[in-house]
Write a structure and sequence with these properties.
heterodimer; A: 371 residues; alpha+beta; OB fold (Dihydrolipoamide Acetyltransferase, E2P); 6-stranded mixed sheet; 5-stranded antiparallel sheet; 20 strands; 32% strand; elongated; B: 582 residues; two-stranded antiparallel sheet; 25 helices
Chain lengths: 371, 582
Amino acid sequence: MHASQTPSKEPYLRLIDITKTFGSLVALKGVTLDIAEGEFVCFLGPSGCGKTTLLRIIAGLEQQNTGRVIQAGKDISDLPVRERDFGIVFQSYALFPNMTAAKNIAYGLENMKLPRAEIKRRVQELLELVGLPDVGHKYPSQLSGGQQQRIALARALATNPGLLLLDEPLSALDAKVRAALRLEIKELQRRLGITTIFVTHDQEEALVMADRIVVMSNGVIEQVGTPTEIYISPATPFVADFVGVMNFFPGQAAEKPDQVVMAQTPLQCAKPHHLQPGREVIIAIRPEDVRLEISHRTATNTLSGTVREALFMGSFYRLLIRLQGIQERDLTAEVSSNRMRDLGLRPQSKVEVHIPPDLVRVYPNGRELPQ
Amino acid sequence: MTTITQATRPITVEKEIYRRRVRQRVGAEGLLRRALFVLLAAWLYVFLIHPLAVNLLRSMQDKQGNFVGLANYINYFASPTTSASLRHSLNIAGLSTVITVVLAFLYAYTLTRTTIRGKALLRAIAMGPIFVPSLVQALAFIYMFGNNGIFTRALHLNFQLYGPVGIVLSEVFYAFPHALIILMTALALADARLYEAAEALGASKTRIFFTITLPAVRYGLMSAAFVVFTLAITDFGAPKVVGGDYDVLATDIYNKVVGQQNFSMGATISTLLLIPTGIAFVLDRIVQRKQVAMVTADITPMGPKPHRPLVQGTLLAICILMALFIISVYLVVLIGSVTRFWPYDFTLTLKHFKPEVAGAHHGLGGFAFILTSLEMAFWTSLVGTIVVFISAYLIEKTRELALPRAILYLLSITPLAVPGMVLGLSYLFFFNALNNPLNFLYGTMAIMVISTIFHYYTVPFLTAMTALKQMDPEFESIGESLNAPFYKTFFRVTVPVALPALIDIAMYFFLNAMVTISALVFLFVPGKEVASLAVMLLDDAGNSSQAMALSLLILVTGLTVRTLFYFITRGVRARTQAWTVR
């Protein structure tokens, strides 16, 4: 799992030690990142983490204090916006309200001094590309949110830029349109093979769309990895907390290098944690990784508890379990409705909680417990 | 292992270049933008800051031009007689403010909150005073309540009109529509949910009025008070016509400069006039900021609701009385213009429409002055709108240059604190100086236009800023990302989208230029007076009927122009409807 091999090809976009301050506020504290050609990368993080600032620095709309941006082998750090090669879509779409959809798409093409017939042909091609061949004559206010979003995308792609920047483009849409557009954008990106950066605060969106996710917090990169890597092995408690749902419990490193102690019960981990025995740690467990039994069948990694609350969620139940020896927080577990019926669980039921060793995540520094 | 490689591969950051501060290269467009900034700064400096500084300096010189420090100020305050004008001005402005705000609040409340009929008509009547110079109502009041006024004669009463009574009456009349607009906006923005909550809690109507209505409009009330105070203390027309011996700051400046040729004392008094207007300006800015913070996006606007019949009836009666009074003033103007000799001979005549200024008849009669006014108003409107919009665009839509933008913003809003009299006198000192290379501007239409633009600079500037702020801030980013020069996006997107605001701005400049006097009394070209100024000169020469007739022409022109703008706006709205209405 050590992936520090040198890439075979020079990365398409390199961000090297980017820092940015707004007055006394430090927005980015030395961000370094490589993005390969054709890759779909998501910048994920809570608001104020610096993800949008980083995107705007790549576009030249914001100026970094120090650090370089290298695109296609060329240092573009001090280039004005107009001389950079990118297309951009904003959350607000920023479609020109006084121009039809076709005029909006043609705006960038006109600046290339193409013949009129060529522009017309290309506009139609783009309208078809985003699946809206018949709305060219309409004004933005006559289009739905999802249609406006597609037109904004077509406008950004019109000039064949080398880099596509998307700044929370789906945040203003309702859930259904959003889900559909996720797939459409992803498919379009794969078809065109255009290097794409997508900024979002929605972890689900990032997991579904990205080739690679860059999780950011407080102006630094917390972790870079594929969606599965980020979800299965979050590098820090922050990532674990931000992506998906996670239970956090305090614990200590045990004498054995691959064990931790939680509520006086030793828990076996898959990998050794290399921490000093007795050191405070955070133990993180995903709700869906918890296995519930009625009787003590597996001796290892099993804690006893009582069901405090069972919330019906449709296809599954969310259980809040009070573990023996832990008063301050409950364990959240997710159990399929079938399994729930088989076990016959209800509030106040006693239950045995088993946690598979390879799904026990351990982080040092147990004092700063999330939530 | 997947093929995707770990990105945070360590890169040696020791290299000097990674620690170097990044500065985006300034391209040709950046240079153009900077050049426009320099032009804007020069414009504000030459036509605003420097003349004001010259005026300030002049107030510290004696008649021969020697520096005397604060001696002029000390002389002004030396005796109660010499410093009377400041006291008078503060009294007049204070009293006018209280009366106007109370009356305008009643009127505004009735128009926004009750369910009476005829609101549109009442509103239209109340806006009338905007279309005539402030001295016209003063003239009308003389015809009504002066020594030979119809009411004076009919009732055998002495109204003591000439002096504070006449000035306050005129100022209230003049400032009323301005206060009304502010208060109607404030009352319309109140949150209906507060009222529902109060009613649910069983509060009485009276209690609701004092605990919700008044607090909700407190910033509107303050803002209206500052505006009225500033209008009243800076007005020149009304005190000139109806003030008699009662000197206020504005007339005192005029008498010192035009009457006694005492320029230093004129400069001194004009500087004193800047103090109350400056204070009102700063307080108003603070209040406005608070009001903006108070108005959140998601309020449920408070619509009109039926009140108890007694309350509604009383309010309606008060409004009708006020409206009738306003109408009667214009009736007096109309009748005074077309009858032979008010109030003795009411035979119809058109002879007053051939006014005589400085002994010279104009072939076109009063229309010659109107043409000059139209010419000045046209240029003021055209140049003013362009300059104000471009400067607002530069200040609002430039990413870098934060400090120059802040300074230029501050300079662009200061004209609101500068009374027309002060501006005019400052221009007189600055542009009339023989060693000034811009001396050629003195006594031209251009200087009248520029002074009028600056006199009314701030409100259009803020209108433009608001319109630009409401636009998506990313239009410019999109334009740049599509490799369009900023001026292309400006002309193709910003201007078309801001067109309604641009028309409002043009109309504001135009209508104000039609009625302004104060700055122009020091700058006009003899033989080429604008109509509003000619009204003053005619009245000065004792030809009040001719002044009346010319006022009527101004009123009719103003209403015509307003109507014209209404149709232009409607045309634009229709054309842009496709992209503004869903």
